[in-house]
Fold:
Amino acid sequence: VQLQASGGGSVQAGGSLRLSCAVARSIFRGNDMDWYRQAPGKQRELVARITSSGTTNYADSVKGRFTISRDDAKNTIYLQMNSLKPEDTAVYYCHVVFFWGQGTVVTVSS
Structure:
């Protein structure tokens, strides 16, 4: 398995969750890494990206609430999600090169 995502769950609006994605060492180094999400009935969308040099980019809908980070020692990327809203409900996927994690479900209730 190249990517293994975890950390999803159910929270109330305003709550927080942290997603993790363990990445195979062979593809971790030197690559940009992303979190995507797909809500029911919608297309998959890019949520956040972190480059190999640590530069981050976010979708406008999550700016100021979500933080992507990487731990090079653990070959893991994270997505810290704060101030969650019902519209953040989706399956979240980590992505590196052309590999996808299995998805982890985030449900935010109002």
In short: The chain has a mean pLDDT of 96.
